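Dataset card, provenance and construction

Sequences and ligand SMILES were collected as paired inputs. For each pair, a complete structure of the chain with the small molecule in place was predicted and serialized as structure tokens. The example below shows a pair involving zinc ion. Curators did not alter the output after generation; any descriptive sentences attached to a record were derived from the structure itself.
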Amino acid sequence: MALALAGLVARSAPQAASEMTLPTMTLEDQIDGRHVAFYYSADSNAEAAQLSRSYERRLTIGSGDTLMKVLVDAGAGARDAYNAIEAMSALFKPRYLKPGHEIVVTLRAGAGDGAADTLVGFKLIESVERDVVVSRDGEGFTASTVDHPLTLDVAAANGVIENSLFLAGETAGVPAAVLADLIQVYSFDVDFQRDIRSGDGFSVMYERYLDESGAVVRTGNVLRASMTLSGKEHELYRFANADGQVDYYDVEGKSMRRTLMRTPINGARLSSGFGNRLHPILGFTKLHTGTDFAAPRGTPIYAAGSGTVEYAGTNGGYGTYVRIRHNGTYKTAYAHMSGIAKGVRVGTRVQQGQTIGYVGTTGRSTGPHLHYEVIRNGGFINSRTMHLPSGEQLKGANLESFMAMRETADAQYAMLTEPDSGSPSSELALANRSAPLPQGRSGIPGRPGAAAWIAALGSQ
Ligand SMILES: [Zn+2]
């Protein structure tokens, strides 16, 4: 393969340095299923001519690849490849190389027919934030890192739901990870199977990280969101209290957190409710002790509340099963899993919303689904109708700083989504606009300030 490339170089440019300057050439091709880019440039002096025989190959690590194999396949000599990897190991352990990692290998084409190419170095794109660069240094190699700091900014989007929140969010350009967070923070109050109707709306303001080229490489927290359900708006805000505990609160500073989630899974369809039913396998009427959610095998299952795992393993007809003890009153159980999440075992402390396992069809089950049980004081209760204690209400200084934060967040959201003169004002154009955080708290006409809010709350 390397020889074929070297041949291509020879055909594309003169063999010797010439007086004239030749343009840089870039060739891209698909070789052995890998994307390969390589360039050739020639200049007017001998040193440049030497350099000009360098070419780059950008490769993606496949499953089962070792760095040694990739470098040698790319055309490096085995000894050079070994030394280069040795140099890299101080900054990046080869065992952390994963399929999907990209590597840019620089080689110098052999001078004559059949002459081997020489490894000049390579760049491993470790993450969006860091490259590991290995360069030739005489006979050996040295390694260094290049950091690419990410910029945090805030984006906002909104839309009207026609079919599902996911589709509406996608149309508005909201990243899937943000939508998943949005669903999770609302999951205590909104039943995404029953409560959403066509024409309902949503909005979200969230953090995102941009690389040097301005591309979004990662998303952060949802800062503010709203769901308009049957005309009623439900807003929520992310807020850290004086103790540094982060939670989502409604407009009045009441925590959205509930003891248990009704639906500890995303995008699932309720397939069988709680109560007496004819058992599909046993063939006689039996109390269905939980709620079934049909979902594809492998769909993550969340801990419905924070607690301690008291069972994790095979449990008869339940198949692969996890049970969590939340407090002295409540436990939840999850059955028919295809597998239990890494690190989840008896005694593990889990957080609400943490993935504890994956949908499967183990045990007495007719197809992939989650069987979810809520146990109160030892008895099974219906998760759809259970009464859940509501969250904590912020008070005093915490409430005051929450209200100030809320005002800032509202102003920022308005700035990000309100059309300004000269720009298109369509719903789509509004999505994903970004702007820096507002300085201080600017009042918005028509909205009460924080002090007025607190006074109003106090007088109720
Ligand atoms: Zn069931």
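Derived descriptions for this record:
The chain is about 20% helix and 35% strand.
Residues 396-417 form the longest helix (22 residues).
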